[in-house]
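Quick note —
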Amino acid sequence: MEGELAEGVAGRLDLPADGIRVRVHAAAASGALRVANQEISGALLGGEGVRRFAYTHQILVRAVLGATGGALGDATAT
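Predicted structure written out below.
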């Protein structure tokens, strides 16, 4: 997953995908997404109602913003 994320991060930061800054942000984003996914899937498998996760996209955005210190900018920007 980090390789794919690195391509996106590189595009946002206008840096080479194999650069250390890009790789660190990709790794941080990957970890944040993994943890958020584990929390959400664990709660759903544990019987939580799906309505609790109607705003899952916001959870994921906050996780990535927090992990990268906002370096990737607005998650909704293209």
